[in-house]
Design a protein that fits this description.
Radius of gyration of chain A: 30 Å
Distance between the termini of chain A: 61 Å
Helix content of chain A: 10-25%
Low-confidence stretches of chain A: 37-42
Oligomer: heterodimer
Strand content of chain A: 35-45%
Strand order of the largest sheet of chain B: 2-1-4-3
Number of strands of chain A: 24
Largest interface: A-B, 51 and 45 residues
Mean pLDDT of chain B: 82
Largest sheet of chain A: 10 strands, mixed
Radius of gyration of chain B: 29 Å
């Protein structure tokens, strides 16, 4: 029997087009988000990111056992019920007056909490028919796009953000504790009798975090009033790795160059890097200036620690969550 | 039985097309970052959240964090409205600009004086777009806070003034 050619062609064409369609279906399945923008599945991730960021920023957290409870979970890390970072001055209050102001101790403790507690207490998992799947997450506190350091560890939790997945991200503005600052009027500072241009401060360690020293109302007595160097117990500190110097001129911060002249209306500011005053002892910090004089002589030298206040800086807390 | 070779070509074409498509998709997914636009709702939530955070942070900030907090900024208001060329409350404007990079905003103050609701524009950075959001925060002024900030609210000693700070913000 002779076969009909026309029939064969359409049959093989059918096979060809089927293969093509199978490939097309495979691709549609392969990348679900490609053809349907904003699927419903991503929504729950948005909520998770939002909830996590809100708990961390606005809640001081909670711990409890059979006898007592409070918001100072950073002191009772075995019985954490909720993780929150907001600073709280009254640990029995259940809420805080200062949302968005983060406590350094709480951040430090959160970095040390183990992975499973963190995932569980922040609710970073999905419950599908009784089986728990934890989300991928990344929590960081950044300033100018660089993670902030706390005791030389960057504040960064979780995994690297995958580039091929839908990631839900929320950013919150927070205030983080950076260290301590002290503000001095020039006439409060003490000098060692013969060196009238070199005020000395007694700094008692250990002091963690950044240290900010501000001096205002300088008494200019020569033609080239300028800053020379900082000495710690007779050893010169290096500008850059050890400290940064600035002057505040009409509200604007300008780096203090060795040649730049200082006016008596300027406020001189030193930012000393963390780790310089790590030991438990008293350091002698000498500020060497030129053509700027001080009158009050020591010893005893001015006690830096009596002037210190905690200082905060705005930063961004970012929570990113993915499946 | 005679076979027809033409039919085979269709099958091979299908196969070739399939392989090409798979290779193309693999190349795209492996090489480039896929940016799926977040849905509109979550973008608005994010915008509201970060704007509200900016006002909260300014309100609760201790002196060692931000020099003038929200109450001090508002208390120092001289009483005149802004237009596009001259802005009031420059301190507040600078502080907000630092906290909200990439976001444009206008600020209005709303308060009740002599039984009437006043709404004054104090910071104008442009015309709000359609997807702008508004967040609010209340500050309370007294005569002493106004005097120490050098404002012109003219409050009596026993008077308290509650002012609503309205921040309209939008993404650029």
């Amino acid at each position: 029997m002779m076969m009909d050619e026309d029939g064969q062609i359409s049959l093989d064409f059918l096979l060809g087009i089927s293969l093509f369609l199978i490939a097309l279906m495979f691709i549609v399945q392969f990348i679900p988000g490609l053809f349907i923008p904003g699927t419903s599945g991503e929504g729950s991730l948005d909520y998770t990111a939002y909830r996590t960021a809100t708990i961390l920023v606005e809640d001081p957290g909670w711990w409890g056992n059979s006898t007592s409870s409070g918001t100072d979970w950073e002191e009772n890390t075995d019985n954490i019920l909720r993780l929150g970072l907001a600073a709280d001055d009254d640990s029995s209050s259940k809420l805080t007056n200062t949302p968005n102001l983060l406590s350094k101790q709480k951040i430090t403790q959160m970095m040390m909490v183990n992975e499973s507690t963190l995932v569980e207490r922040l609710g970073l998992y999905n419950n599908v028919d009784g089986t728990l799947f934890s989300y991928g997450y990344n929590i960081s506190i950044t300033q100018n796009d660089t993670p902030q350091s706390l005791n030389n560890t960057p504040i960064l939790l979780g995994e690297t953000i995958p580039y091929d997945r839908d990631v839900s991200k929320i950013t919150r503005i927070v205030l983080v504790e950076k260290g301590v600052e002290a503000q001095f009027e020039a006439d409060e500072l003490t000098i060692n009798a013969s060196e009238v241009e070199d005020p000395i401060l007694n700094v008692t360690g250990p002091l963690n975090g950044e240290i900010k020293v501000q001096i205002s109302n300088l008494n200019i007595t020569g033609v080239d009033p300028s800053f020379k160097r900082l000495m710690l117990d007779g050893v010169q500190l290096n500008e850059g790795p050890d400290y940064i110097s600035h002057k505040l001129v009409n509200g604007t911060m300008i780096p203090l160059e060795p040649t730049g002249k200082i006016n008596n209306s300027d406020i001189v500011i030193f930012y000393i890097e963390p780790g310089i005053f790590n030991d438990t002892r008293t350091y002698e910090l000498e500020i060497d200036l030129k053509d700027i004089t001080f009158t009050k002589s020591g010893p005893p030298f001015l006690d830096f620690n009596q002037y210190i206040k905690t200082f905060y800086e705005p930063a961004y807390l970012t929570v990113e969550v993915w499946n | 039985m005679e076979l027809n070779d033409r039919a085979q070509i269709h099958t091979l074409e299908g196969l070739a097309a399939a392989i090409l498509m798979v290779i193309t998709m693999l190349a795209i997914t492996q090489s480039a970052m896929i940016v799926t636009p977040q849905n509109e709702l979550s973008m608005i939530v994010h915008q509201e959240q970060i704007s509200s955070d900016a006002l909260t942070v300014l309100d609760i900030a201790p002196d060692t964090a931000i020099q003038y907090n929200l109450t001090e900024c508002v208390a120092g208001w001289q009483g005149n409205e802004s237009n596009v060329t001259s802005s009031n409350l420059e301190t507040l404007d600078n502080e907000l600009a630092n906290l909200l990079p990439d976001i444009k905003y206008n600020v209005d103050l709303a308060y009740v004086k002599d039984g009437e609701l006043n709404t004054k524009q104090v910071i104008i950075n442009g015309a709000a777009t359609e997807d702008a959001v508004v967040v609010r925060r209340l500050v309370t002024l007294s005569n002493s806070s106004v005097t120490s900030s050098g404002g012109a609210w003219n409050l009596t000693d026993d008077e308290l003034m509650v002012v609503e700070v309205r921040l309209t913000s939008w993404q650029i």
